[in-house]
Amino acid sequence: MYNDMQISNMYDTTQTIAKEIFNGVTYPWEVLSKIGEFIISLGNQLSEEEYDKAGENIWIAKTAKVAPTAYINGPAIIGKDAEIRHCAFIRGNAIIGEGAVVGNSTELKNVILFNKVQVPHYNYVGDSILGYKAHMGAGAITSNVKSDKTLVTINYKGEKIKTGLKKMGAMLGDNVEVGCNSVLNPGTVVGKCAHVYPLSMVRGYVPEKSIYKKQGEIVSINENFLLG
Fold it and tell me: What's the CA gap between 223 and 213, in Å, rounded?
């Protein structure tokens, strides 16, 4: 019904080792409760020639770079050529895609990062899915629990969509750019190729190929802007 937010319109699922978790599912937030079990199942099938088992339910690609000061709690899969930098804190239920960057003091919990995602500086990403080449600027975070602890809803074109989830951060489509020190409130969904201004407080749905300047001010961006 809400076509803009369907997995098929937000993500290229060929760009994640977790492709199969999306089978038979319509909206991305529907897989959040399945991430931990999926990692354990997938991890036990990974090639021992390509992945090392580094602890209980932790699989790290041999080509990944992991700083000795990083902390990784399972279940977790660190993909090929990923980079886990100084003091990164991976709390569990995390799939980190090929070529992804998890930066200095960044914290992850119950997430899927597609290939080439960058969360490189002081980010918190919880109960969220970040699409191919999505990037969060320094200090940008997801807020995954409402202050009143009620179930998360998504504000979509004037309608409130019930998720049934107490914890949901942000669903970022492919090639989304989030500016520095922005806060993505619970139930944020950002369509592919959208841009969020720095210092933004984002809530609800942001259409694909748009610029979020501030609450109530979202403008479309043209193809020349996207091509850079």
Answer: 18
